[in-house]
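=== Structure Prediction Worksheet ===
Name of assembly: unnamed complex
Input type: mixed (protein and possibly other molecules)
Chain count: two
Listed entries:
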Amino acid sequence: MKTPIAIGIDFGGTTIKCALIEEGRIIHRGEVIETHRSGDSAAIIDALFSRIVDLQRVCPETVAIGVGLPGITDSVNGIVHRLSNVPGWNEVPLRDILRRRTGLHVAIENDAKSMAYAEWKYGAAKRGENVVCITLGTGVGGGLILNRRLYRGSFLGAGEIGQMSIDYKGIPGNYGNPGAFEKYVGNAQIAERAQKLYEKAGKLVPIEQCTPAALDDAAQAGDPVACQLWGQLGIEIGTALSNAVWLLNPDTIVIGGGVARAGELLFAPIRQTIRALTMPIFYENLVIVPAALGNDAGVIGSASVALDSLPGPA
Amino acid sequence: MKTPIAIGIDFGGTTIKCALIEEGRIIHRGEVIETHRSGDSAAIIDALFSRIVDLQRVCPETVAIGVGLPGITDSVNGIVHRLSNVPGWNEVPLRDILRRRTGLHVAIENDAKSMAYAEWKYGAAKRGENVVCITLGTGVGGGLILNRRLYRGSFLGAGEIGQMSIDYKGIPGNYGNPGAFEKYVGNAQIAERAQKLYEKAGKLVPIEQCTPAALDDAAQAGDPVACQLWGQLGIEIGTALSNAVWLLNPDTIVIGGGVARAGELLFAPIRQTIRALTMPIFYENLVIVPAALGNDAGVIGSASVALDSLPGPA
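=== Predicted Assembly ===
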């Protein structure tokens, strides 16, 4: 039997990527869509449809389409409730619209959950039974695989590690939740904290030079401020993850996003923190690894979710 | 077909209770064992065996035995690694010992997980798909039902809500974990906090009169100090539960233990806090209820876990 091929669409606030996916591998990439230049939701759906047609031309035997979206999506009913950084997407029945226009099986899913699924099925957490995935970026996204299944929770909102509190009297999050973890380790917060630390050390560094990538380079070159900051971030990330570890006792934690590229600078203090804050049965066999699929996790994950939700026997 | 009957054993630090259980109901109670008066683990196992024989005499068709224990238990291999407040229980293969001596099917499980299972199967969370249970006492125990199954985690340690941090720079927990939730709302902590609050209000109250039950009575009678304390406890419990809600998006939260008897004095601020710290899809359909089975949850849960793990078709 031939392995089925699906179109994976990674709907981001800046760009929308799409590709043909076969068994977790990209076999062809479609043209990128600039999200904000494309107009309202109807115009973006038109652009999506045109990319789908292009990809179907490349591979006419495509059987499914998966879309990963940055926001609150109802994967059961196929409705986009709201997107985080893209206005005009309120209660859009995206699954049925695409299904009608393409005739193919369509699945929609939250982007962090799609990425977690990709990392579990084809990436860094391949043999995991219970996996916690986090993606560090502007905010902190999360996805859970529990008992070898994508875990969505009762109302499809599970996995919001970035909103969990590390300090009940701390910095307020987007929902008035004090101590929200993402308000400590989001890209903007990291840049601000770096700038302040540099200032304290008598150095004026423009905020544009305080991206995770720049701080990574600086630390690799031995910059003490950058090294200190990565250590501190590792403690905070380790603290938040320890809470998930006490609750879920996972075997694998996958950390992705720009920040994760700092490698051992970040992973060493994370491991150390989880070791210090939990107990042996929780950390002794726990594997903490960087994401393996990078920017491709979105298209691979959404296509895989779609393929694995095809009705009937495969 | 007759409904199967099992013996449920609730192994506590103070007493060990046992009963015959049929479909989640106690049909006969065995004599209580005083845990500390009974000697070492071998002597306690002898006492357990004698109670089992007594109960088998009452009901010769008993098919299984379930034991819920306060500590780290390996329910897969049937080994008690360690008990929290009972010395001399290190690496005891309790399941095989009881199996050999009784010839019956035996299952062992952590007590908080047994109680969660009982509340889900027969108690306050009967229709729940994803349920978070906490038991407030000396410490805070927890158990999770996810996708209608008892969730144990990869190394059988899941559900330790009491160890989750509400403040990464806060009061250290038993494992050096700062801000451990149970160090804010455990019985001893509640008593100390109450005494201090009374002192501040110019009243000297002995610590023995600061039990959850006494504070409950006081608050029901309008005592402002007790009312204030229950409100504050509700905020802390609500904060810890909000973290579990963001991560797991459950439909039901069950709160048990002595503290939960305070009823709306405690449940109102808990609900309010979860509402304030999360977002509508997380709290709008979330049910937060007191445990329904009280002190019987242990025997009912352990018997039910044993019955539901019987091999072959029921």
